[in-house]
Structure formats: C-alpha cells, structure tokens
Input
Amino acid sequence: MPRLLLAPMEGLVDAVMREALTRAAAYDWCVTEFVRVSNTVLPARVYTRVAPELLRGACTAAGVPVRVQLLGSDPGRMGACAATLAGLNPAGVDLNFGCPAPMVNRHGGGSILLDEPELLYRITGAVKDGVAGRVPLSAKMRLGVRDTHRAIEAAQALVAGGAELLVVHARTKEDGYRPPAHWPWIARIAEAVNVPVVGNGEIWNVADYQRCVAESGCQQLMLGRGAVADPFLAERIRAAAAGLEPHPAEVDWARLLPVIGDFWQGVLHKLEPHQAPGRIKQWLNLLRRTFPQAEHLHQRIRPLRQAAEVTDALQAAGAF
Ligand SMILES: Cc1cc2nc3c(=O)[nH]c(=O)nc-3n(C[C@H](O)[C@H](O)[C@H](O)COP(=O)(O)O)c2cc1C
Output
C-alpha cells in the first residue's frame, strides 16, 4: 500500500483545512505550514497557534498525526526553537528547505539555503540536538536553487545533519510551481541517501500518481494542491493500488458537501467575518478543477462579501 502524506501549504492548508482534508481521506501524517524562526526564540504559544492539534495529542480530529514545520537559517535559534517545539510532543519536526518566496529567501530561509550544504548540515544538526530524540525529524527540500547540480550534496548534508526522512519536491526554486515536476530526480536522491525519501510535486490524479511511482520508484508520496482540489485523491490512489473501483463522481460530491459545511463553520470560528468568505472562495476555486458542482457553487459565492450570505448559499447547496 502506498504511504501518503498531506503537504504543508502556508495560506492554504491551516488547521481548519487539515481537519477537512484528513476527514475526507486518510493520510499517514501531515505537516503544518511553516513557522518562521528569525530573530528570537519563539514561545510555545506560537506553535500551538499554528498547530492547535498539539493541544489534542498532535492529531487531527480524524486521528492523522501532525508534524510541525520550522523555517530559518540560524542554527542556534533553530535548535533552541526545536527544543521548545519537541517539548510539545508534535508527531515530528519538519524543516523547510523548499520555500521559494522572495520575502523568505531574502531573510536567508527556505530554498535559497540549498546552495549552502554546509549550512544545511549545521541547521539540521542543531535541530537534531534540540529535538534530542524525543520526536522524529524530517526535512523537505527542492532540487536546488537555479539548477540540480547540488541536489545530491544537499540531500546528503540534511541526512548527515540528522534528518531521518527527506521529502523531495522535484523542482528547483527557479521552477517555482511550473510543471513538470522532475520525478526521476527523486529516485536519484533516494539512491544517494540511507533514509526514506518521499516524492512530491504535480500529483493531481491517479494517473499522475502511477507515473510518479514509475518514474521515481517511490511508494511514499506527499500530496499538495492535488489533495485540496480533490479531497478524495488519497482515497482514489489507495483504491487504485488495491485494484478497487472508484466511487461515482455524484456520490463524491454528496460526501464532500458536509465536509465543506464543517470547513466553513471552522473558518467562521477562526477568522473575522469579513476575512472568512475569501477562504471558501479559495477552496472552491481549486475544487472546481475536479467537481462541476463546485464550479456552480463558486460562481454563486464569488460575488458575496458577507459571511451570512455565504452561509445561506452553502445551506441552499446542502452543505448543512
Ligand atoms: C500555497 C502554497 C503554500 C505552500 N507552503 C509551504 C510550506 O509552508 N512549507 C513547505 O514546505 N512547502 C510549502 N508549499 C509547497 C508544497 O508543500 C508542495 O511541495 C508543492 O505545492 C508541490 O506539491 P504539489 O504539486 O502536489 O502541490 C506550498 C505550496 C503552495 C502552493
């Protein structure tokens, strides 16, 4: 059976979305959006804000374990932060060496560090010391900054520093999110390190999954935007791997509606009313790649500004 992880996605997958997506389909574990470590050692409340799951055994309500991701470049502060974080018993600590955002890279964090394997080694080593064996440590990388020539060196530095698992997003920073993802590179990295490697990038449907497995040789995959666009993607992948027929599409929409309803209630609980409509529009915008019914609902909700109007529209659609 494939092992499937839910990707960290800052601004898209927060605790409310993790709740929804892990209820729709099972994942082996998921990772929070990154917590940025800059000039200070962060207090515990920063982690519990990003990962309220830490207050409930570090699992989503559906029981999927949650790892918390750190992003930063100062080994000492990263290690100290990891020590606090590990004390909160997350399902693991994950390190971000993939973020391409200029704002983050300008401050020396994320994928820009892939050009500095020595620093990758020191950061991972300091975090490993901070975690002190209490929880597993993983790291998420891209293939490089501008090209792939240091990909293997970067992966080996992360493992030498103490990462016990690598997630490889098979694109460089320069590639951004442009297709394709270079899945054969996942196989090359897996051959060069002695820890499990999880493949990631551009898996939107079962056919992509099958091609990714064939090209990467990897049975462990992390799903990002594809899991948000089709919350049953993980389930479809597991069914295909077991040789089972998928559910008909109309049945899926009926199963998804109450999940959308609960998501909306969660958003209303978390955000100010004027911020809430943007979140459901963002999700529907991705869901319409998969579900024609989501296209219809998106058109209905897109002009609405008031949370109460959105609630009415969702109710009319049968979300609660
Ligand atoms: C909106 C958005 C936010 C992201 N935030 C993070 C993040 O916080 N940490 C991280 O490691 N990767 C982040 N990523 C990268 C994803 O985890 C994943 O590696 C990438 O989207 C490729 O997978 P996909 O093609 O399946 O979406 C983000 C991606 C997107 C689209």
User: Anything to note?
Assistant: Residues 249-317 form a domain with the Bacteriocin As-48; Chain A fold (CATH 1.20.225). The beta strands are 3-6, 29-36, 66-71, 93-97, 137-141, 165-169, 197-200, 220-223. The chain is about 45% helix and 15% strand. The CA atoms of residues 75 and 156 lie 17 Å apart.
